[in-house]
Design goal:
The chain has 271 residues and is an alpha+beta fold. The protein has two domains: 85 residues, no CATH class; 178 residues, no CATH class. Helices cover 45% and strands 16% of the residues. The strands form two sheets. It has a six-stranded mixed beta sheet, covered by helices on one side. The protein is globular.
C-alpha cells in the first residue's frame, strides 16, 4: 500500500492525467504551464511535488488532490494527508528571513564549492580560471565565461540568453545555473530587504523556452519555491559549518551535475 510522505502546498485541487515524462523514480504530470512531480524518493521537496513510498510508478496514470485533503491515485487509491505531510512553499522564505537584517555570508560556501566541484564548465564563474580538460567541456566553459562577463557588466538580458540551453542533460547546465542565480537573488531579497525584482524578471523571462522541465524549475526559482536541501543550506550559511557541508553534499547529488550547476548559480547572485 502506498504511503504518502510529503505533498507540496501549491498542488492544485484538480484531477491531472496528462503525463509529460517518466523516469526511474519520477513521473511528471502536466498541469497548465507547470509540471507536477510524483517521486518515490524523499528529496527534493518542492511546492509542486508529491512524495510516496511503496508505489509502482509505471502504474500511475492520474493524480488528484481533493478539497478534503486527500490524494487520489488512478481514481481509486485514496491517501489522506494533514499538516505533517505538507512541505510549505514558505519554508525557504522563512529560512532566509531568519538572518534579516544581516546579509547572509556566502564566503564559506564559495570556498567549499571550490574544493568540492571539479571539471565543471561552470566553475569558471566562481574561480575565474579555465580548468576543464575535455574538448566539449572546454568549448562550453569559454561560452560560460563570456556569459558571466555579461552578468558582471550588468547586461542581464544577454547573460540569460548566453547561459540558456547550454550544456548536457534534460535540464542543461546553463539553465540549472540560471535557476540557482534566480534563487540566490530571491534569497538576498528575503535576507537583506533588497529589491532585485527587475533583474529577476528579465532573467526569468529570457530564460524560458520549450523545455517544460526547465521552465518549471525556473518558475520555482523565480517564485522562491526552493527544495528542502536549499532550505537547509540557507539555514546553515551564517553559523553552521557542519550543516553547510551536509546541505552541499545533498545538493551535489541532485542529478548528474544539476546540483553543482545550481549551487554555482546561487553563489553567483552575490557577485
Amino acid at each position: 500500500m502506498p504511503q504518502l510522505t510529503c505533498i507540496g502546498d501549491r498542488i492544485p485541487c484538480a484531477r491531472i492525467d496528462a503525463v509529460h515524462s517518466r523516469y526511474e523514480r519520477t513521473v511528471n504530470f502536466l498541469h497548465q504551464e507547470s509540471l507536477i512531480s510524483l517521486h518515490t524518493f524523499s528529496d527534493p521537496r518542492t511546492a509542486l511535488s508529491v512524495h510516496l513510498e511503496g508505489i509502482d510508478l509505471p502504474s500511475i496514470r492520474s493524480i488528484e488532490r481533493t478539497p478534503d485533503s486527500s490524494l487520489i491515485l488512478n481514481d481509486q487509491i485514496k491517501l489522506d494527508f494533514d499538516e505533517r505531510h505538507i512541505y510549505p512553499a514558505s519554508a525557504f522564505e522563512h529560512a532566509a528571513r531568519q538572518s534579516f537584517p544581516t546579509a547572509l555570508d556566502v564566503s564559506a560556501l564559495q570556498a567549499l564549492l571550490l574544493r568540492q566541484i571539479i571539471d565543471n564548465p561552470l566553475l569558471v564563474t566562481l574561480s575565474g580560471v579555465l580548468s576543464c580538460s575535455g574538448i566539449f567541456d572546454r568549448v562550453v566553459e569559454l561560452k560560460f565565461r563570456a556569459a558571466w562577463n555579461y552578468w558582471q557588466q550588468g547586461q542581464y538580458l544577454t547573460t540569460a540568453l548566453s547561459f540558456k540551453g547550454r550544456g548536457k542533460g534534460s535540464s542543461p547546465a546553463g539553465d540549472d545555473f540560471l535557476c540557482g542565480l534566480l534563487l540566490g537573488l530571491k534569497t538576498r531579497e528575503y535576507s537583506e530587504g533588497a529589491d532585485f525584482s527587475n533583474i529577476r524578471t528579465v532573467v526569468f523571462e529570457a530564460a524560458l523556452g520549450n523545455n517544460l522541465i526547465v521552465n518549471t524549475l525556473l518558475n520555482h526559482a523565480y517564485q522562491g519555491w526552493a527544495d528542502s536541501d536549499f532550505v537547509a543550506l540557507v539555514q546553515s550559511l551564517n553559523n553552521d559549518s557542519n550543516g553547510l557541508h551536509s546541505a552541499v553534499q545533498k545538493i551535489l547529488m541532485h542529478g548528474s551535475s544539476s546540483g553543482a550547476d545550481s549551487l554555482l548559480g546561487f553563489v553567483g547572485a552575490w557577485s
